[in-house]
UniProtKB/TrEMBL annotation:
<feature type="repeat" description="TPR">
    <location>
        <begin position="81"/>
        <end position="114"/>
    </location>
</feature>
<feature type="compositionally biased region" description="Basic residues">
    <location>
        <begin position="1"/>
        <end position="14"/>
    </location>
</feature>
<keyword id="KW-0802">TPR repeat</keyword>
<protein>
    <submittedName>
        <fullName>Tetratricopeptide repeat-containing protein</fullName>
    </submittedName>
</protein>
<dbReference type="InterPro" id="IPR019734">
    <property type="entry name" value="TPR_rpt"/>
</dbReference>
<keyword id="KW-0472">Membrane</keyword>
<feature type="region of interest" description="Disordered">
    <location>
        <begin position="1"/>
        <end position="22"/>
    </location>
</feature>
<keyword id="KW-1133">Transmembrane helix</keyword>
<dbReference type="Pfam" id="PF13174">
    <property type="entry name" value="TPR_6"/>
</dbReference>
<feature type="transmembrane region" description="Helical">
    <location>
        <begin position="53"/>
        <end position="73"/>
    </location>
</feature>
<dbReference type="InterPro" id="IPR011990">
    <property type="entry name" value="TPR-like_helical_dom_sf"/>
</dbReference>
<keyword id="KW-0812">Transmembrane</keyword>
Length: 226
């Protein structure tokens, strides 16, 4: 009896199904054509002006670096100026006025545009009653140093019997700009009292009482007018 033929069955491997590839349709809308046109215009502009753009970027970088370098330079100057100024302050605290004058003059002459240099200009002028340094301090663009310089310039002028010039300096201290306005009023009144112009001095006292009631200068002038 014959054996029935049999076939060797082999498992068929399942093929991996690849996702269908989506082929986009041709872009032929007016909007798409405009976008493509704009894109090529930009590319063309960049190619045409590439050299100018690179030069512009380098110029901006150079200017930015220059500004940063200038700031570092200014800060470095102030550090040097502050070192000299601090020596002067230390000398003052220890009663060495002449030594302090030397340091203040040094910082004023070497670093006149730094904050410490401006302060040194004023303090040297104040200690030595030097009108050149005081007037220079008065002209500085500093909220604290400038009015103080003007005030002390007026005091020195008054001590030299230059009363008209002194009054001019004191009255230049505007209440809207300078924190020394009450001091300027006070010294103006002192000049008037010296010239025996009691009425004018009293007028200033009334201003001080109205605007600076709690000021030291108001109290002092009130005592003098009693």
């Amino acid at each position: 009896m014959k054996k029935p033929p049999y076939k060797a069955y082999r498992k068929k491997e399942k093929k991996k199904e690849e996702p269908p590839v989506h082929i986009p349709e041709a872009i032929d809308t007016p909007e798409a054509e405009m976008m493509v046109s704009d894109f090529y215009k930009i590319i063309g502009f960049l190619e045409k002006h590439l050299q100018k753009i690179v030069v512009g970027i380098l110029l901006i970088a150079t200017i930015g670096g220059g500004i940063f370098g200038y700031k570092l330079y200014k800060e470095n100057l102030e550090i040097k100026a502050a070192t000299i100024f601090d020596r002067g302050m230390f000398a003052i605290e220890n009663g060495k006025e002449k030594e302090a004058e030397k340091y203040f003059k040094e910082v004023a002459e070497k670093y006149p545009d730094t904050p410490s240099g401006k302060a040194g200009t004023f303090l040297y002028g104040k200690l030595t009653k030097n009108l050149f340094f005081l007037e220079k301090a008065g002209k500085s663009e500093s909220f604290t140093i400038s009015p103080a310089g003007k005030l002390d310039t007026g005091v020195v002028l008054f001590e030299e019997n230059k009363t008209d010039a002194a009054i001019g300096k004191f009255t230049s201290l505007s209440r809207d700009k300078d924190w020394t306005h009450p001091a300027g009023l006070y010294y103006t009144a002192i000049v008037y009292l010296t010239d025996k112009k009691i009425g004018k001095a009293k007028e200033i006292y009334e201003i001080l009482k109205g605007d600076y009631q709690n000021s030291f200068y108001t109290a002092m002038l009130g005592e003098l007018l009693k």
